[in-house]
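About this split. The held-out portion is used to measure sequence recovery: a designer receives only the structure tokens and must propose an amino acid at every position. Recovery is the fraction of positions where the proposal matches the reference. Here is one held-out target exactly as it appears in the evaluation file.
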């Protein structure tokens, strides 16, 4: 199964570890499926506020974004300002924020998972791939 085929699987779309190596292949596959791709660099985030700011900026959230976990879910589960066949969010450089604000980071991943569930009900794939070394989330199914 290729990345292009895997990413079309709305039934398993959700939050996973980002595969090691060539993320560009994932981006190309997502774009081939008509997906919007968002790269979120969390390398400089030191706390919840900075993490939410980085996500909001990278996903071009509307001005009304309230910088809370509820508001994050509202925006992730809508994305009406970014219509697409599906979505791929790459959370990059997550080890620092995971270490500095673990509870907030875990809650953020739960919000992304909840958004994926809401999109799944609409038949839309919403993927969030997390670049970090720590365990705690599933690995993306392998492709051949």
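Reference sequence for scoring:
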């Amino acid at each position: 199964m290729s990345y292009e085929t895997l990413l079309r699987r709305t039934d398993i779309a959700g939050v996973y570890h980002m595969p090691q190596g060539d993320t560009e292949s994932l981006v190309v596959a997502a774009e081939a499926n008509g997906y919007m791709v968002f790269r979120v660099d969390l390398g400089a985030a030191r706390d919840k506020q900075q993490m939410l700011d980085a996500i909001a900026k990278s996903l071009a959230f509307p001005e009304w974004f309230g910088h809370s976990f509820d508001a994050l879910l509202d925006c992730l589960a809508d994305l009406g300002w970014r219509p697409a066949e599906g979505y791929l969010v790459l959370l990059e450089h997550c080890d620092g924020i995971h270490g500095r604000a673990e509870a907030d980071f875990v809650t953020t991943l739960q919000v992304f998972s909840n958004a994926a569930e809401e999109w799944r009900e609409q038949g839309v794939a919403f993927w969030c791939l997390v670049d970090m070394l720590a365990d705690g989330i599933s690995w993306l199914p392998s492709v051949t």
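Annotator remark: The chain has one domain: 3-130.
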